[in-house]
Design goal:
Helix content is 32%, strand content 23%. Helix 18 (602-614) packs antiparallel against helix 19 (636-660). It has 6 domains: 17-122, GIY-YIG endonuclease (3-Layer(aba) Sandwich), CATH 3.40.1440.60; 131-212, no CATH class; 223-405, P-loop containing nucleotide triphosphate hydrolases (Rossmann fold, 3-Layer(aba) Sandwich), CATH 3.40.50; 420-461 and 521-657, P-loop containing nucleotide triphosphate hydrolases (Rossmann fold, 3-Layer(aba) Sandwich), CATH 3.40.50.300; 463-520, no CATH class; 667-757, 2-Layer Sandwich (Alpha-Beta Plaits). With 763 residues, the chain is of the alpha/beta class. Strands 9-12-13-11-14-15-10-16 form an 8-stranded mixed sheet, sandwiched between helices. Strands 17-29-28-20-27-26 form a 6-stranded parallel sheet, with helices on both faces. It has 21 helices and 33 strands. Strand 18 and strand 19 (435-436) form a beta hairpin. The protein binds adenosine-5'-diphosphate (ADP) and zinc ion (2 copies). One zinc ion is lined by residues 468, 470-471, 473, 508, 510-511, 513.
Length: 763
């Protein structure tokens, strides 16, 4: 509704209302605007408005209505248009976001913009006409009973037959792509002259046309493929009962070894919640895991599902958001940012792989979706389940202190034993691209016995650096304290920290020697080596470089699952939650870096990784084995993990954190600062620390300014100030006073700075 007379500037003395508006701009503050008095009672926080901003017109969000502005009313500009008649950010989401903005010491305006789908930040229509698509009719007209009969009748119209078959294939992939049918763009890429046959099929009601997003319904799945549901075992039943009967809705941690049937517990819990007409939010750490999980939910529950993740475009994401917000979908499966989706009938939240670092946003608004989910469940008084085979030390600490309730699934549901883990010492061994002979022998054995092997190395590319054998020159990044990784396939050097890229030199850039060596091995090199060594086996590399094309990750995962690929070489991507039934051997190639990392979470991550990756082995009929390469087989972390398990490791690790005064024993905040000018960054942090000292607080410790572990990145020098306290409350009281003043520090204008509450790492 455009404002009356908004083109002519209303009389300055006219009675008006004042609203605070969050505007999408890099400035860290909100802005005051005026609205005619006639808007009394019609506006609410969370509604979008169009406002003049400099020379632009931008879409902002109303934060609040205020009595008085800090600025003279006459100088305030008028809102051009109120775009919504109801608040798109519902009170629940608005409150959650406001709380998060305070907790993470982040400007409210920016936090609210983050909570809103990107599409709504840039477009004013709230009923977007989504891409049109065509799909097989759900209830075929005429008296054709099955697909075969339909195909038979189409024999005489080959073009229609072709289109129909394309749509049939699309149907099969609907779950994988979280997309229905085929849109015009895709048709254009598949075939020519498709419009006429499509219209003919429409007329015959064999296909239908739609405009809304993928709300997947259980019905969409082929009923013949329905896997039978297992009766739950005792441990699973106990967990379900305890969670369902908990009137207080405590936080429940489902601590179950890999393959113990956690997902079955989720399904069971969903059943009753969905039957009561409520909605469920399932958070997953990464996109790769959504199709698998979506499929299982659709197979076993009678429900409607939408998926939300970063590989979808703005329009698709908005449509999914819209479907959830308008109750067209009962179940939302999504990654981190889905936590901000309105779900009016929310009745249960599930956080899968709760220990995963992807739940923490690492730039901008640095929230942790797991922690916000807990708050959301509390506010709404509904159950929440955090599932993991390797719960975070934070969650374990909360269990110890009886804030969370733990449910343990000790055994694999299909009674398969957990795999045997063995260390392979690298000391004095002849190495082949970083792999010991014994390891290669074991791989060969497995392949000979029709086994499947997974090799994990958290380093993509061919080699982490090139080095001159004559003078020692190395390929350093000009802008970072790091080497540039050699990618052989496109013969490039790429910095994995700032993305700088250049052709790989054939000669030393220092002495001109051609004796340049690739040092160390990444996924690409391992893949090459193994393919040469085992030419009859299919080697599949799964990392960010080989899965850029849309759909390629799913394709590779499918081949891994079906056993078509014999050797899988991959990074982090492969470590998480995947169920590859045929894997008999898992090799972790490099643990030494993590054993001696400067980051305080490195040990926890390594223990989780080893346990998670190991969990990929021996999930089905064939027993599994795990080999871990290291130069330090006696290392206490590895020894504890191997002989006494993740639980024992976590007890020791929690004690270490306690002794070192690190989370979760003490709470941590980082003030990060970077600048092309190192001294400017240090000066800012010194000024910030000095400001902080004005408040005398014995319960709060400040350390720094210290250089970040990687001091220079992308041409900027990076420093940090660390704040610690045993009491959250004290820390937050301090932040609320301190952070708003930081912008005004004299050195603030020459640097970039950010506050990170509960940081995931200290890099
Ligand atoms: P998790 O999520 O803990 O890794 P899943 O739920 O994926 O475990 O279960 C692992 C395997 O065990 C799956 O193939 C699943 O179908 C099977 N499974 C789960 N629960 C049972 C049960 N009660 N009886 C038999 N098999 C089960
Ligand atoms: Zn040289
Ligand atoms: Zn770089």
């Amino acid at each position: 509704m455009p404002l009356e007379g908004s083109s002519t500037r209303p009389n300055a003395r006219q009675k008006t209302r004042i609203v605070k508006v969050a505007v999408p701009c890099p400035l860290y503050s909100s802005f005051d605007y005026r609205l005619p008095e006639s808007y009394a009672g019609l506006i609410e926080a969370g509604m979008r408005v169009r406002v003049p901003f400099g020379r632009q017109k931008l879409i902002g969000i109303i934060i609040d209505e205020i009595e008085h502005s800090e600025y003279p009313t006459a100088k305030l500009k008028f809102v051009t248009e109120v775009l919504d008649s109801e608040n798109l950010l519902t009170p629940e989401i608005f409150d959650l976001t406001s709380w998060a903005a305070r907790y993470y010491a982040h400007p409210l305006g920016d936090a609210l913009q983050t909570a809103l789908p990107v599409y709504l930040r840039n477009n004013d229509d709230t009923e977007p006409s989504l891409t049109e698509y065509w799909r097989i009719t759900t209830s075929p007209a005429q008296n054709l009973n099955n697909t075969d009969e339909i195909l038979q009748t189409l024999k005489r119209a080959p073009k229609q037959l072709q289109i129909y078959q394309l749509l049939l294939n699309a149907e099969k992939e609907a779950v994988i792509n979280a997309e229905h049918g085929i849109d015009s763009e895709t048709f254009n890429s598949l075939t020519e002259n498709w419009r006429t046959p499509v219209n003919a099929l429409l007329k015959k009601q064999l296909i239908e046309q739609g405009t809304k997003v993928a709300v997947l319904t259980s019905h969409d799945n082929d009923a013949d493929n329905q896997a039978p549901r297992h009766p739950l075992n005792e441990e699973q039943i106990d967990a379900v009962n305890a969670i369902e009967h908990d009137q207080e809705h405590n936080v429940h941690v489902l601590n179950g070894v890999t393959g113990s049937g956690k997902t079955e517990v989720y399904l069971k819990l969903c059943e009753s919640v969905l039957a009561a007409g409520k909605q469920v939010l399932v958070l997953v750490p990464e996109i790769g895991l959504t199709p698998q999980l979506t499929q299982r939910f659709l197979e076993h529950l009678h429900t409607t599902v939408v998926v939300l993740h970063s590989a979808m475009n703005d329009k698709q994401r908005y449509a999914a958001w819209h479907a959830a917000a308008n109750k067209q979908a009962q179940l939302l499966i999504g990654t981190r940012s889905s936590i901000f989706t309105p779900l009016p009938d929310l009745g249960l939240i599930i956080i899968d792989e709760e220990h995963d670092g992807s739940y923490k946003q690492q730039d901008g608004f640095r929230y942790n979706a797991r922690d916000l989910a807990i708050l959301r469940a509390r506010n709404k008084n509904i159950p929440i389940v955090l599932g993991s085979a390797t719960p975070s030390l934070e969650s374990l600490n909360n269990i110890n202190e009886q804030r969370y309730i733990e449910h343990i699934l000790k055994l694999r549901a299909n009674k398969r034993p957990l795999p045997k883990i063995q260390l392979v010492s690298l000391c004095n061994q002849k190495l082949f691209e970083g792999m010991a002979e014994t390891l290669l022998d074991k791989i060969k054995q497995q392949l000979d016995n029709q086994g499947q092997v997974l090799l994990f190395i958290n380093r993509r590319g061919f080699a982490p650096l090139l080095m001159c054998h004559d003078c020692g020159w190395t390929t350093n990044c000009q802008r970072c304290d790091a080497h540039m990784t050699f990618h052989k396939r496109n013969n490039q050097l790429i910095c994995h920290h700032c993305a700088a890229q250049r052709p790989a030199p054939d000669q030393c850039e220092e002495c001109g020697s051609t004796n340049v060596l690739a040092i160390g091995a990444g996924t690409e090199r391992i893949e090459h080596f193994l393919q040469e060594r085992f030419p009859k086996s299919q080697v599949s590399r799964i990392d960010r470089d080989t899965t850029r094309r849309k759909g390629s990750l799913q394709e590779k995962l499918e081949k891994a699952r079906s056993g078509e690929s014999h050797i899988l070489v991959g990074t982090q991507m492969l470590a998480k939650g995947h169920d590859f039934p045929n894997i008999t051997l898992v090799c972790i190639l490099d643990t030494d870096q993590a054993l001696f990392s400067a980051d305080f979470r490195a040990a926890e991550h390594l223990a989780q990784l080893v346990t998670q990756v190991s969990g990929r082995a021996g999930r089905a009929e064939k027993a599994g084995q795990v080999l871990i390469q290291t130069h330090h087989p006696e290392h206490p972390l590895l020894q504890t993990l191997l002989h006494r398990g993740y639980k024992a490791f976590s007890v020791a690790a929690l004690q270490e954190r306690q002794d070192a005064g690190l989370p979760p024993a003490r709470h941590l905040v980082l003030l990060r600062c970077e600048s092309v000018d190192a001294s400017a960054a240090q000066t800012f942090l010194t000024q910030a620390a000095d400001l902080g000292r004005q408040i005398d607080n014995a319960e709060l410790d400040t350390f720094g300014p210290l250089p970040a572990p990687m001091e220079r990145r992308a041409g900027r020098f990076r420093y940090q100030l660390m704040l610690q306290s045993t009491q959250r409350k004290i820390l937050h009281q301090f932040l609320n006073w301190w952070v708003p003043q930081l912008q005004k520090l004299p050195a603030a204008r020459k640097v970039r700075w950010s506050v990170d509450v509960d940081p995931y790492d200290t890099f």
